[in-house]
Amino acid sequence: MKPIIFDVDTGIDDALAMAYALNSPELELLGFTTCFGNVPVEEATRNTFVVLEMVGKDVPVYEGADQTFKRGMKPEWARMVHGDDGLGNTLKTEPAYRASNGSAVDFIIEQVKKRPNEITILAVGPLTNVALAIEKAPEIIPLIKDVVIMGGAVYVPGNVTPYGEANIVADPEAAEHVFSSGLSVTLVGLDVTMETLLPLSKVNEWRKIDNEAARFFADMTEHYIGAYESFYPGIGGCALHDPLAVGVVIDPSFVQTESVKVSVVTEGEEMGNTVGVKEGGPIIRVCTEVEAERFLDHFLSRVL
Ligand code: BDR
Ligand code: CA
């Protein structure tokens, strides 16, 4: 089993990624850490507990950053895509408050020191928690096995601006800090995630399963597909961004990678752009191709 710390900003595709990971026997989920992003961090923590309950698993949740790494910014939330509650407006009543199990940054540092060279950090939100952890304890950098990140758009356009992908635009300085730190990084960006589309027909099959969890995932994902159809008319589904990062941890052969240095534009019109260059700094594995159908089958066989 691969020990994982799973960093989330729980919106809809984070929730799908969580379910996929929680149902995958290859992964040992040590804990979830939460970050602002799709929603404010308190809501990301709440949503993480909601998804754990739906999947019927108990894994500790550690709340993390409520603002960006350097400039104390709280970027715009993605309620247009993920709904007012971040879960496709599926929360009919506010769930009972559950406190975080502790600090995300301290949890990351403590776990990595306890299990040197074993832990993969799977980060599918802004990179703030990872940046804060390696800034506070730089000695953990060589002890982290890999950081698999859903983020960036190296050879394709962005999704929140013509250049930038949401997780990187939300905190470009955190991303730059992580990419230039010497950490082992695998970048699962829009270059590959936009090819992994989940069509509504598959989601409708979940409706044949008569239980609360299946209804929750179907309603939420239908909302997400609706948002995709409004932003990209005729696209035929929603992109499985965060689930693909989980898939890459389970089976790296879903993707092909290229090793390049990636720098992040932190100012101006191109803010959040992830630029791949051949030489001159720490090398990152950028995913460039994906076996989308094989991945989709695998995801569907596990998610519910
Ligand atoms: C990423 O942005 C978020 O809205 C999604 O959860 C995903 O992590 C896609 O750009
Ligand atoms: Ca996310």
TrEMBL record:
Alphabetized SUPFAM superfamilies for the sequence: Nucleoside hydrolase
Q: Name one GO molecular function term.
A: purine nucleosidase activity
Q: Does the keyword Hydrolase apply?
A: yes
**One GO-annotated biological process of the protein:** purine nucleoside catabolic process
InterPro entries from the UniProt entry: Inosine/uridine_hydrolase_dom, IUNH, Ribo_hydro-like
Q: Where is the Inosine/uridine-preferring nucleoside hydrolase domain?
A: 4-297
Q: Which GO terms describe its cellular component?
A: cytosol
Q: Which keywords has UniProt assigned to this entry?
A: Glycosidase, Hydrolase
| Record carries keyword Hydrolase | yes
Q: Which domain of life is it from?
A: Bacteria
Quote the protein name from its UniProt record.
Nucleoside hydrolase
